[in-house]
Write a structure and sequence with these properties.
Number of strands: 0
Distance between the termini: 41 Å
Shape: globular
Order of helices and strands: HHHHHHHHHHHHHHHHHHHHHH
Length: 427
């Protein structure tokens, strides 16, 4: 009965268009009252879900991403990538994906990546003959890479819930993130192969490339400092987030001089709002997970799934389908809290490396960010480009196919994920 109350209340509230976080929180309260815990248990469980040292990295990485955007780093990265390959047919599409990969290594968030690069690249593509809806779809899709290339906020959440090393998760995400970028670029070029409206700009000179590289150097150095510091043993991932904030302020104030003291208040407010939203989601989801686990509902659902098939490959495909469906409706934080208590025991039975599964699950949610009806990246891109969701969705399909191809490759060939951690002895 408790399972019916929990899950039934959650989906009923979703149908009533109540936000996912609030739906999970209210369903948790209903379950606690039914089990006789009392409503005062909810704030305690809510606080326990977010009072983790590891989670301090999330607000710091969010703040670092916003600072880098205000500092003009995203614009300089775009100029450098455009000088390198923007003269080729479809070059601006490739530039968008390359810049998304670089900014992903700063922000750790899909919507943040879309917001940082969309305002510059969508108008630039339209001016060069790209269809506006497709240009918007490229930016929305490329933003999903921000969840996979480290530092990644979903990786931090998964590592905490599954008791995995954040550093190992970060290293495991590098090749899958680059693979996503490669397949997205191939999909874009294939779609644009017969488009005669695209205007090709003049090829940049070596001097022009060097000039843009010199201006973008401080931005290009950011992921080197963050990841190099982590894997060099200089600081932990949480400390790396704080270092990224200090570095971003130094570059923005003293190097590029685009951040004024008067803008700091707005920067901190933006970061506080974004962090508060994520923490509220995690608190409500943590309460839902707690009642789901203590009432033994999660264990029963795990046992039911294990009885479906004894074949590990079939079981992994079933799990991927579950995560893909969940990604269409909920964000990664909610999805991890909701599904991991049920799925983790099954993954352990299959023998699939747990940190590799975390990367797979994150790729699923990255695909979900460009999949209706929720698709958070789609909403951000629509607001930036002033296009309708209906028009945008019709242009996203090449990237959905590319994302699913990546997912299948990583599912059947986990070495794509595990090779770098294995080489460094992190697995």
């Amino acid at each position: 009965m408790i399972g019916f109350i929990l899950i039934g209340t959650f989906f009923l509230l979703l149908v009533m268009r109540i936000p996912v976080a609030a739906s999970m929180g209210l369903a948790s309260i209903a379950g606690m009252l039914y089990e006789g815990y009392g409503i005062l248990v909810f704030p305690s469980v809510f606080y326990a879900a977010i009072a983790k040292y590891t989670l301090l990295a999330i607000p710091f990485f969010i703040l670092a991403g916003i600072i880098m955007d205000y500092a003009g780093i995203s614009r300089r990265l775009i100029d450098f990538a455009n000088a390198c390959c923007g003269d080729r047919k479809g070059g601006l599409a490739v530039v968008t994906i390359v810049v998304a990969c670089f900014f992903a290594a700063i922000s750790g968030s899909g919507p943040a990546t879309v917001a940082a690069i969309g305002g510059v690249l969508i108008p630039a593509m339209v001016r060069n003959g790209y269809e506006k809806n497709f240009a918007t779809a490229i930016v929305a899709s490329a933003g999903g890479i921000g969840m996979v290339i480290p530092p990644s906020i979903p990786f931090i959440i998964f590592a905490m819930l599954a008791e995995q090393s954040v550093g190992t998760m970060f290293m495991a995400g590098i090749i899958p993130g680059l693979l996503m970028g490669l397949t997205f670029a191939i999909a874009a070029l294939f779609y644009l192969r017969n488009d005669k409206n695209i205007i090709r700009r003049e090829k940049s000179t070596w001097k022009g490339i060097w000039t843009t590289f010199r201006k973008a150097f401080w931005g290009l150095l950011t992921p080197v400092i963050i990841l190099g510091g982590i894997y060099g043993g200089i600081f932990t991932p949480t400390e790396a987030a704080g270092v990224a904030v200090v570095y971003g302020l130094f570059v923005g104030i003293f190097v590029y001089r685009e951040i004024k003291v008067t803008a700091l208040f707005r920067i901190f407010v933006d970061a506080s709002v974004s962090s508060a939203i994520i923490m509220f989601i995690m608190g409500c989801a943590g309460a839902f997970t707690w009642i789901l686990t203590t009432s033994a509902v999660a264990a029963k659902l795990s046992a039911a799934l294990l009885s479906v098939s004894a074949n590990n490959t079939v079981m992994m495909l079933i799990i991927m389908v579950i995560f893909m469906i969940a990604g269409c409706f909920v964000d990664s934080a909610s999805g991890f809290y909701l599904l991991l208590p049920i799925i983790l025991p099954i993954v352990k039975k299959t023998g699939y490396p747990m940190y590799a599964f975390g990367v797979l699950a994150t790729v699923n949610f990255a695909i979900g960010q460009i999949t209706p009806p929720v698709g958070s990246n789609l909403f951000v891109a629509c607001n930036i480009a002033d296009v309708t969701m209906r028009d945008l969705v019709s242009k996203v399909w090449p990237f959905l196919i590319a994302g699913i191809v990546c997912l299948l490759l990583m599912t059947f060939f986990p070495q794509i994920i595990t090779c770098l951690p294995s080489l460094l002895g992190l697995s």
